[in-house]
């Protein structure tokens, strides 16, 4: 009787090769110990890139929105006001030499414009600049930013007796000469050697009016210099009155300040005349001073574009004339400050 053979059959070489190949395939599918860390690192890298791209996009959008606001929304920030066009103000020189603008209604100092260390003999206010005639310096121009420059065409040794500015032009009186400065051009008007220009007024067209007096004395007279001309025409007043002290141009004619009483001169009258005929326009207004006016340099008349007139004296008292009424603006130059003896100008 033969027993069945229970021993495991021997595998041949082909079967062994097949089994080893299957094991290799399984090992290729199983993850290695570092596979998870590599996957997480890769994910973090991709997430970081997306985050950077997202933040960059947000920043670009915010920048674009800001630029759009800056372009479309108007700038409402206050812009610097040029000193010459500050509304409702007049210019004085404070006791320390500083030029300042003051409010017409209150006399309060609004802004300090610049300092002039030399003695100032006359002031003028233009559209964008303030002018100061300074001893030994000629005429200084103070700009909107406070810079000070000397006006070309006016010598340092000029003895300025009067000065006026209008529409970018400046007129300066020195003895019997008047210098007109406009930009880089200079024009001179020379009167007879026996005459002295005591005051002048310049309108926007370039027309000049002069208060002229003989060097040896005598009553001052009015002269007119048409724009672009060098000769003068005498203005013959229609009615007899005291000699003119100061003048300024208004919209309807020439403003003339004269004493009421030629003997005492403690009160003055401001009238408007037609420079062509010498006739008076309107009734005028009267102002009484605290003391008699000694000379033309003791008082000043200036006007603005609204036809308001400022009458100021060397003592600091300042009156505003407008609408037929007279109002004392300041009893002492400006409120709470001391000034030099140069009359204020508007």
The CATH homologous superfamily name equals Peptidase/esterase 'gauge' domain
Major sheet characteristics: 4 strands, antiparallel
Strand numbers in spatial order across the main sheet: 4-5-6-7
CATH fold call: Methylamine Dehydrogenase, Chain H
Number of strands: 23
Order of helices and strands: HHEEEEEEEEEEEEEEEEEEEEEEE
Estimate percent helicity.
10-25%
Shape: elongated
The end-to-end span amounts to 149 Å
Average residue pLDDT:
79
How many structural domains are formed by the residues? 1
Question: What's the number of helices?
Answer: 2
Describe this structure in words.
- The protein has 346 residues and is an alpha+beta fold.
- The chain has one domain (83-330): Peptidase/esterase 'gauge' domain (Methylamine Dehydrogenase, Chain H, 7 Propeller).
- The protein is built from 2 helices and 23 strands.
- It has helices at residues 13-29, 35-72, and strands at residues 89-93, 98-103, 109-115, 120-125, 130-134, 138-142, 148-150, 160-166, 169-174, 177-182, 185-190, 195-202, 208-214, 221-225, 233-235, 246-249, 254-259, 267-273, 280-288, 299-303, 309-313, 318-322, 325-330.
- The strands form 6 sheets. Strands 4-5-6-7 form a 4-stranded antiparallel β-sheet, with no helix packed on it. A 4-stranded antiparallel β-sheet has the order 8-9-10-11, with no helix packed on it. It has a 4-stranded antiparallel β-sheet with strand order 12-13-14-15, with no helix packed on it.
- A hairpin with a 7-residue loop joins strand 17 and strand 18 (267-273).
- It is elongated, with a radius of gyration of 44 Å.
- Residues 1-9 and 66-85 have low confidence and may be disordered.
């Amino acid at each position: 009787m033969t027993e069945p053979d229970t021993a495991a059959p021997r595998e041949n070489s082909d079967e062994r090769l097949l089994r080893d190949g299957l094991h290799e395939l399984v090992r290729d599918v199983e993850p290695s110990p570092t596979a998870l860390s590599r996957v997480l690192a890769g994910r973090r890298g991709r997430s970081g890139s997306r985050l950077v791209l997202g933040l960059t996009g947000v920043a670009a959008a915010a920048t674009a929105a800001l630029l759009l606001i800056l372009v479309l929304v108007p700038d409402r920030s206050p812009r610097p006001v040029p000193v010459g066009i500050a509304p409702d103000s007049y210019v004085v020189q404070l006791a320390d030499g500083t030029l300042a603008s003051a409010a017409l209604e209150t006399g309060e100092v609004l802004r300090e414009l610049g300092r002039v260390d030399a003695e100032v003999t006359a002031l003028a206010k233009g559209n964008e600049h303030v002018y100061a005639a300074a001893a030994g310096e000629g005429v200084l121009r103070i700009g909107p930013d406070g810079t000070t420059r000397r006006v070309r065409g006016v010598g340092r040794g000029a003895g300025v007796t009067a000065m006026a500015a209008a529409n970018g032009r400046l007129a300066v009186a020195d003895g019997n000469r008047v210098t007109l400065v406009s930009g880089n051009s200079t024009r001179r008007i020379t009167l007879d050697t026996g005459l002295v220009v005591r005051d002048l007024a310049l309108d926007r067209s370039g027309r000049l009016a002069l208060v002229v007096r003989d060097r040896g004395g005598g009553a001052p007279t009015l002269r007119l210099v048409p724009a672009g001309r060098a000769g003068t025409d005498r203005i013959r007043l229609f009615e007899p009155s005291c000699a003119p002290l100061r003048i300024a141009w208004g919209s309807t004619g020439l403003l003339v300040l004269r004493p009421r009483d030629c003997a005492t001169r403690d009160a003055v009258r401001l009238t408007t005349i037609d420079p062509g005929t010498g006739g008076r326009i309107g009734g005028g207004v009267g102002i009484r001073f605290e003391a008699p006016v000694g000379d033309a340099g003791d008082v000043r008349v200036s006007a603005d574009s609204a036809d308001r007139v400022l009458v100021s004296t060397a003592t600091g008292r300042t009156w505003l004339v407008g609408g037929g009424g007279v109002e004392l603006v300041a009893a002492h130059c400006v409120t709470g400050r001391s000034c030099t003896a140069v009359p204020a100008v508007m």
